[in-house]
Amino acid sequence: MAKKIGIEAAITDLKKHTLPGLPGDIARLVYLAATRDYNTGRYYHDGLAHIYTEEFAARALQECHNDIFQDLVRSSIEDLLRQFELYVNSGCAQANEFIDFWEKVEPYRVAIPLTSDPVSAQLFNSNVKIALAILRHRENNPRNSSPAALLQP
Amino acid sequence: MIPALFSIVIGVLLLGLLAYWAFRGSSAVLRAGFSPADTSEALRLELPPVDLIERMLDPRDLAFVCKESPVETVRLFEQERQALAISWLRHTRRQVGRLMSYHVGVVGQNINLRPALEIKLGLHYVRFLVVYEVILGLSYILGPFRIRPIISYVIGVTTQLRGASEKLLGAAQLSTRTSAPPPTQ
C-alpha cells in the first residue's frame, strides 16, 4: 500500500511540476525516453529518486512514458503534426535540420516504451513518418501551412 | 475358442493404440514446453485494443493527408496503412494459431472435456480462417480503407474465439487445480 502511495505521489509530482514545463507531448516523450538507460532500460531521475526512492521514481517515469506514448499513438495525424510543430517551434532545432535528422536516424524508434505492443509501436512509427513528410512539405511550401501552424509562437 | 481369442487380440491391440495416443499427446505437450502452470498464458490471446485498429484505419487521417500533402506522401501513407493492416491480420492469425495448436496438444489430456464447447471453438476457428483469408486478400486488392467496414467482423469472430478460449481456460484451470499434487514444503 505504501509502495503504491509512493509511486502515485511521484507520478503526481512529475505530471504537476516537470512535464507541464515541456512544450507538448513530443517533447515529453523525448524527455521521458531520455531518462531511460540505453543499456539496461531502467529509468532514472536524480531529483525524483532523491525525494521518492529510486524504485518509485523509476516506476513513475515508466508509467508517465507509457501514458504519453499511448496518447500520441491514439492521436490523429493532424494532432500529431500539431505536436511536432509545437516541438520544432520551441527552438529545439532548425526545422529542416530537425526533419533531416529525424528522417535519417529515426530517433523516435528509441522513444517507444518497452512495454508497448508491436501494433502500437508500428502505428506510432508510421504516423511519425507521415507527419515528418507533411512537415517537410510545409517547410518547403510555407503557403500550405495550416492555420494551426501559423498560430504557434 | 478361436472367436474368443480373436476378440482378446483385438481388445489388446485397441488398448495398445489408446495407450500410444495418450503417450504421444503428453509427449507432444512436453516437447512444446507447456506445463499445466502456463495454461493460462498459452490460452490468452494477446491482441491489440480494438480502438487502436479503428484509429489505424480512420478515414479522417486519409482525408487530412490527401488535403495537406503531395501525391507521394498520400501514396506512402496508403502503403504504410496497408502494411499495418496486413501486419495486424497476421499477428491475429498467429495468436489464434498458437491458441489452437496448444488446444489440440492439451485436449487429449483434459478430463474436463466439454464436447459442445469444443465443437463451438472448432466452428469459430474455421469461420475465423475463412474471414482472415478473405480480408487478407481484399486488403491487397482494395487497400486498407475500403476493408475497414469488414474489419469489425474479424474483431467480432476473434472476440468469440477469445470467449470460447476463456471458458476452456476456466475448465483447464479447474482440472489443473484438481489434478495438481499438494504443495511440498
Describe the structure.
The complex is a heterodimer of chains A (153) and B (185). Chain A contains eight helices and no strands. By secondary structure, chain A is an all-alpha fold. With 185 residues, chain B is mostly helical. Helix content of chain B is 81%, strand content 0%. Chain B contains seven helices and no strands. The termini of chain B are far apart. Chains A and B meet through helix 5 and helix 7 of A and helix 3, helix 4 and helix 5 of B.
SSE topology sketch:
The complex is a heterodimer of chains A (153) and B (185).
Chain A: H1 2-18, H2 25-34, H3 46-52, H4 54-73, H5 77-92, H6 95-105, H7 118-140, H8 147-151
Chain B: H1 2-31, H2 39-43, H3 50-56, H4 59-68, H5 71-107, H6 115-142, H7 148-179
Number of strands of chain B: 0
What's the N-to-C terminus distance of chain A? Answer: 44 Å
* Biggest sheet features of chain A: none
List unreliable stretches of 5+ residues of chain B. Answer: 18-34, 178-185
Give the number of domains of chain B. Answer: 2
The number of domains of chain A = 2
Question: What is the β-strand count of chain A?
Answer: 0
Biggest beta sheet summary of chain B: none
Number of helices of chain B: 7
Order of helices and strands of chain A: HHHHHHHH
- Structural class given helices, strands, pairing of chain B? mainly alpha
